[in-house]
Amino acid sequence: MTVDAAGKTVLVTGSTDGVGKLVAEQLARAGAHVLVHGRNPEKGARVVADVRRATGNDAVTYYNADFSSLDEVRRLGATIAEAHERLDVLINNAGIGGGPQPRTRRETSRDGHELRFAVNYLAPFLLTHLLLPTLRRSAPARIVNVASAGQYPIDFDDVMLTRHYEGWRAYAQSKLAQIMFTITLAERLAGSGVTVNALHPATYMNTKIVIEGGNAPRSTVEEGAHAIVYVATSPELETVTGAYFDGTRRARANAQAYDETARDRLWRLSAQLTGIATEPAGAGVE
């Protein structure tokens, strides 16, 4: 696949390791100004140096934020919006897995939310909203949400899983939430020139999340990076929005993703938890 990203500014969250790092490297090699994100400044500096050396592209910048804190996400959004007049592509890749099985000890974020829902879903929900004005100015622009084929319907009576907690379910619920957000945001951004799509990049890539979860890798980060870069840059998808991909192929997500009532309920809950102003469905996002 030939990647045309010359002159574009791309933020890849969770890009100091695994598939995110490879995506950042591939986009830098294609000429993009890549904004690398992580939560360890020393590691971030090493990754920036590695990517610059590997690609010959010095337009690689590191930003630090721990997605278990919504305040840090707010600072990240404000910093990027102030530093960059353009943002052509936002790739919401940062996340944590379900952990070693069986994981039955429930964990919470700094804000008191179930940790996987907070990091994998609420953080990108908030960051995306904070960067929407910049993305709109940069249109045509793209938002890519890196989700998973592992999806579990949300129980709105126990979203934070205070009862019957299990790590895989928490992870799978957060990933379905990403897809539900993708579809709703695509509807709200219709006609803006900003597209929003989600994908399952590859199954059990050889990443730290997979290995620490006790799973044997079935695919590689190269396969996953190929799919993410495809959705983020392919001319074939220039006008495609609100879609879910399995690799590079259109696919169907869990049925709840297409339930308008459930999506609206999730949107309103997310807006409440993150402090983002919301509007009636179909009003568009300003």
Question: How would you characterize the overall build of this protein?
Answer:
With 286 residues, the chain is α/β, with parallel strands linked by helices. It has one domain (9-274): NAD(P)-binding Rossmann-like Domain (Rossmann fold), CATH 3.40.50. It contains 8 helices and 8 strands; from the N terminus they run βαβαβαβαβαβααββα. The chain has an 8-stranded mixed sheet with strand order 3-2-1-4-5-6-7-8, sandwiched between helices. The protein is globular. The two termini are 35 Å apart. The model is unreliable at 280-286 (pLDDT under 50).
Q: Give the tally of structural domains.
A: 1
How many helices in DSSP terms? Answer: 8
**Beta-strand content bin:** 5-15%
Oligomer classification: single chain
**CATH hierarchy, class:** Alpha Beta
- Tell me the span between the first and last alpha carbons: 35 Å
Estimated helix fraction: 40-55%
Jot down its keywords.
about 290 residues; alpha/beta; Rossmann fold; eight-stranded mixed β-sheet; 8 helices; disordered C terminus
Write the layout of secondary structure elements.
Layout: E1 9-12, H1 18-29, E2 33-38, H2 41-55, E3 60-64, H3 70-83, E4 89-92, H4 115-137, E5 141-146, H5 167-188, E6 194-200, H6 208-212, H7 221-233, E7 244-246, E8 249-250, H8 260-274
Parallel strand pairs: 1-2, 1-4, 2-3, 4-5, 5-6, 6-7
Antiparallel strand pairs: 7-8
Helix pairs in contact: 1-2, 1-7, 3-4, 4-5, 4-8, 5-8
